[in-house]
Amino acid sequence: MTLDFRENGKLSVEDSLLIEKIAPDVLQEYNDFTARFIKTNNLTGLSLLLTGTCRNTYASSVFDIFCKVALLEERIIMNQVPDIIHVDEKIEGIINGVLEKHSLEDRVEVKLWKGRGIAVHIIFNICCSLYFLIVGWLWARVFKLKRQPEKPISYVDTFLFVDSINETGEYADHYYTGHEQYLTSEEKTRKWFAPTLFAVNYPSDYIKLGKHLKKTGENFLIQEAWLTIYDCVYAFFAALFIPFLVHIHVMFRGIDTKSLVDKMIFSDIGSTSLIRAVLKFRFIRRLSISNIDICAAVDWNENQVIDRALNMAFRKFYPDLIVKGYQGFPSLAYYASLQPVSYEMDLNTLPHQLHVIGEIYKQDKLKMFEKLDVKISPAFRYSYLFDHKDNRPEGKPIVLVALPGQIEECRTIIQICGCLKNKFSKKVKFLLKIHPIYTKKRFFSLVPEFDSVLFEVTARPISELFEIISVLITAGSSIAVEAVSVGIPVAVCGNRSGVTQHFIPETVSKKLWTIVFTFEDLEIFLRQALVINKREYRVHEFFQPLDRTKTRELFICH
Q1: DSSP state of 333
Q2: Full domain range(s) for residue 37
Q3: What predicted TM-score, i.e. pTM, was given to this entire model?
Q4: Distance (Å, rounded) from C-alpha 398 to C-alpha 465?
Q5: Which of 191, 232, 401, 435 is most buried by its number of CB atoms within 10 A?
Q6: What order do you get walking across the sheet with 84-88 strand by strand?
Q7: How far is CA 355 from CA 301, 352, 544, 546, in A?
């Protein structure tokens, strides 16, 4: 038996199912490990901005690796010891530790696949960070983007893309969609967006965004315009030295994690992630020094390092301010940082209040931290669901394949769905929706195996597609829970490289959704799902409708 534990390696279906079974217990072990890691190393202040401290399972592979460790131990307990284990450099040390623990180091062959060396990784980090710092600072000054609020303001954390503002200066808000209709003109003037630039990479991106920012009438606090040269230098050297504050390694299941933690820490040296977080802290400090009166603060909260920096800064420089962490999206099953834990409140890395978009998510948060102040706020991004209509056409049912942003996951989904060609193509119409981060041309170049005969590519918005489709096939995307909330059956294509992330709460009936790993799994689910005629509309269980009272509670000074 062979196990492929490389980052993009493929597990057997049996092993994938076993990982899904053990993942909830490993998640708790991972949370405990992180708490011990912070306490043992006495990490405080800016050292809490290291990737390894925030339990962001997208930025760190530690949880995924711990799941693979648990899988290996399960196989050993079941007397199903593998002959060969394929590993990369991240996981090699801890897998050898498992084998030594069980006295199997002479019985199992561990094959190492080498990747980019740590020195190359650090140099790459530093080069990217210097580019990010220099270009951002110059950009804000060339376009003179600094604006000074004159009244007490509501600080609203968000993200800004190249195309967030069009040529006429019109701002398309993708995070708090539709909120302004519930605010008065005076309330709107007091609301200031404080964006983090996202996917703004090339000089042409900065130029385009700068020109459009000059034309917009929206209130923006552009961080780069407030930071000084000293702030940038401070952040750069902080990113070089903070990782070296970690000296002590803690155990996981009696296994030494030194090799894993060392690689995790080294990956932070000079990283843009760490620099962005330190700059966020310095930015809020600058606002305080400049006597900017902030009477309300909303953090788009994923409890990532940048959120930790924001919350620590507001607690330090605006001690009387109540910070509201808004999670304007459904919770992911194994996105650990979305589930705050008690020790994070003691470390001042959490907002004072956590605002979620439905009762089901409130209960989810309180399971992990019962003393957390959780409130329910409008589900701005999902308001279209409240107007949903079932307009499925006569004739062939329509199956929508909604692709994620990760190309490997796209390939997996297309491969599984491609096997349906002979059995369903005459009975079912398949639509394919490419993730918005890709143009059609770019996507086709990355996924040449795409079958244009089976799939018809669509650019129609999800709100329209949901009215006509009978089944949704996707991966770990919030679109899955949007679909089940209006009664659309969903097949989530499982991750064969590790734990499958998904948004659907366990309270949703498995008749309406499932995780599929093979063509056979998908075929069985489709045959069951396509005969469901009556839809169960459950939007209000998942999403809070928009209204003036709750919108003001979130945004307005009190």
Answers
A1: T
A2: 2-118+247-259
A3: 0.92
A4: 9
A5: 401
A6: 2-4, 84-88, 109-113
A7: 9, 10, 11, 14
